[in-house]
Amino acid sequence: MIEIIAHNLAPIMFTSVMAMLLLGYPVAFTLAAGGLAFFFICVELSVFAPDQIRLFPNLLQANANRIFDVMRNDTLLAVPFFTFMGLILERSRMAEDLLDTIGQLFGPVRGGLAYAVIVVGALLGATTGVVAASVIAMGLISLPIMMRYGYDRSLATGTIAASGTLAQIVPPSLVLIVMSDQLGRSVGDMYVGALLPALMIIAMYCAYIFIVTLVRPNTAPALPAEFRTLGGGVVSLIVMVVLSVGLHFLLYTYVFDGLRYETRFVWSATLATAAALAVSLLNRYLKLGVISRLAEQVIIVLIPPLALIFLVLGTIFLGIATPTEGGAMGATGALVLAFIKRRLTMKTLKEALDSTTKLTSFVMFILIGARVFGLTFYGINGHLWIEELLLSLPGGEHGFLVVVTIIVFVLGCFLDFFEIAFIVVPLLVGPAESLGIDLIWLGIILGINLQTSFLTPPFGFALFYLRSISPGKAWNDEVTGKKIEGIRTVEIYKGVIPYIVIQFAAILLVIFYPRLVTHYKDDVAPVNLDDVQIQLPGMGAPQAPGAPSGLPGLPGQNGGDGQPGGLGLPGGLNLNGSPPSAPADQSGGNAPSMGLPGLPSGLGDQSGGGEQPQQPAM
């Protein structure tokens, strides 16, 4: 019985720790305690399975270095920077300004408020990167307005919850930072690979709203004209957009044509949006009347968060800054924006710093616990057990990805994405590399998967966030004077189901069309091994032109034929052909071979002493 346990410690350890996590025990302490407990158990059982258990008591000291490696990880510094940036923006009421302005813009269109929620969710995801902040902010601002104007409850709640989870996949996402760190890949490549899938998911959300407005127009009515305070002027906005896009195209095509396409896009888009912002500010403060009030407000409200996005992603794509440095600039930019809007107070700053410290400590404790767990798990060949288990699946790389998607989706319903990233993702690296799977591709699939798990009833975290701020009882609307019924939990669950279907469709598209992600490798120049030349440096004086290849001679030492001798060898070391011929005269007056003193004249001159022995053929 003990031998059976000793030979199956890997699955026993993994299932035991996962069961403790699912029961709700603190993650960091469960991982660390499980790792330490199984370490001592495995050391005692190592005599029964010495070929499988490679643990001994002194190995426990390695945990200190492993924990210090976590502290020295510069990539994880981006986590507190991006978290602080998002919290400052959320507390400076940027979401409120965006929802109000974009809601006015899409107001005349059926489903306009739903489109506004999706667009703002994408912008918040690209600035805050925190699902909880996005869902709560949009739920507090948008849900009462959507209920006021007759939106279907399930459609409204589902749209808000799904749009809030875009923070999981839209760069610069915390999920992508942690995923790239655990997969051992560049954060910049992860951001570039996530760009097209994120845009695809946003477009699929908007397409769903469009279909709903066609099939059931009463579920998403347009905003009444009396509540559109900014008036008309869409044509003016369209003209500004067309001019900005034209300027962007000209810069992209003719000015920055020699750069990578991401770099060209960032520079040209930055200059085009800066020109549009300058026109809008001049129109407002100089009363020029060149563009409409709606176009002016939309541009002024949208440009600051877009500029912040370009400040972060643009510097990373341009290679000017690392993701950590980009996060630091993003946090600084958020403080500047909040200060300009006169919303940066000591209370706001203190709350943002407190929340950032708590989240960062949470992440670090989980990572330290995962390192302790990993030492024991790898010491009992647990990674080999996982690898054999996954490589035996049918279907090759697609079968592997489908099964991993299902497993991570189920775990995502119960565990936070940090826990999955630090525990499960490192175990998938070996099998994925054995199957030739691009790890950036795998990371994007897992990111979309975790986004989906945030929506899944009954344990989706986004559903809990929305439920916590949704009115459960009827209330009297101050604007219309009507009594509006409260939101039921079943209505929230019903509303997210179509978006879960969209998410799974997006995952399948990324799995079966990997070019959506792997385009990040297009601009990497291939290396032709035939063109690689290796030149060894000389070990003495430089060789004369035409000298045989080998080790050059030392100064003052000459070999045969007047060529420098390598280390005192005549003619240098010829590595390309037959050995060099012996010198014609080896009398004591000539330079000795190997640096030895010359022979006496009686022994060194053997010209008359008989026949010389013939050298054996080589």
Description:
By secondary structure, the chain is mainly alpha-helical. Helix content is 62%, strand content 2%. The chain contains 25 helices and 4 strands. The protein has helices spanning 2-7, 9-22, 27-45, 62-71, 78-91, 94-106, 112-127, 131-148, 153-164, 174-183, 187-215, 234-255, 261-285, 293-317, 323-340, 346-379, 382-391, 396-412, 417-423, 425-434, 439-453, 461-469, 489-512, 515-518, 601-604; strands spanning 475-476, 483-484, 553-558, 564-566. Strands 1-2 form a two-stranded antiparallel sheet. Strands 3-4 form a two-stranded antiparallel sheet. Strand 1 and strand 2 form a beta hairpin. The protein is globular, with a radius of gyration of 34 Å. The model is unreliable at 549-577, 582-596 and 598-618 (pLDDT under 50).
The rounded distance between the terminal residues' Cα atoms is 67 Å
The largest beta-sheet arranges its strands as 1-2
Number of distinct helices: 25
Largest sheet: 2 strands, antiparallel
Q: Specify the overall morphology.
A: globular
Radius of gyration of CA atoms, rounded to a whole number? 34 Å
Q: In percent, how helical is the residue content?
A: 55-70%
Mean pLDDT: 77
H and E string: HHHHHHHHHHHHHHHHHHHHHHEEHHEEH
Strand content: under 5%
* Number of DSSP-assigned strands: 4
- Give the class from helix and strand content and strand pairing: mainly alpha
Low-confidence blocks of residues: 549-577, 582-596, 598-618
